[in-house]
Write a structure and sequence with these properties.
Elements: E1 2-7, E2 10-12, E3 18-26, E4 31-39, E5 46-52, E6 57-59, E7 67-72, E8 77-82, E9 91-101, E10 104-109, E11 113-117
Parallel strand pairs: 2-11
Antiparallel strand pairs: 1-3, 3-8, 4-5, 4-9, 5-6, 7-8, 9-10, 9-11
Length: about 120
């Protein structure tokens, strides 16, 4: 089992920045990928970015050049730095972790944190 706790959401003006944090605990040794997804009202959940234990990173086209994912291994924490925020970035952001245990893949999700971009 992996537990994920997110923080850092809030209200920001267009063009502003926010940093989200996701602290993992539990069976963290089994995590092979962490990342962030988001869901806007009335929309499907969208994958934003992922980072693997080997450091491989991917971004959705909609956030490339504006968002940066990073991790602090010592703190078991993943961060999402969001710059040049746009109103369309408004959503609930969810941290997730993918684990691989004895050939079985599991996904764990945080509780979500609201990001609102508005003037």
């Amino acid at each position: 089992q992996v537990q994920l706790v997110e923080s850092g959401g809030g209200l920001v003006q267009p063009g502003g920045s926010l940093r989200l944090s996701c602290a993992a605990s539990g069976s963290i040794f089994s995590i092979n990928t962490m990342g962030w997804s988001r869901q806007a009202p009335g929309e499907q959940r969208e994958l934003v970015t992922t980072i693997t234990t080997s450091g491989g990173i991917n971004y959705a086209d909609s956030v490339k050049g504006r968002f940066t994912i990073s991790r602090d291994k010592a703190k078991n924490t993943v961060y999402l730095q969001m710059n040049s925020l746009k109103p369309e970035d408004t959503a609930v952001y969810y941290c997730f972790a993918e684990t691989l245990t004895m050939g079985n893949i599991f996904h764990y999700w945080g509780q979500g944190t609201q990001v609102t971009v508005s003037s």
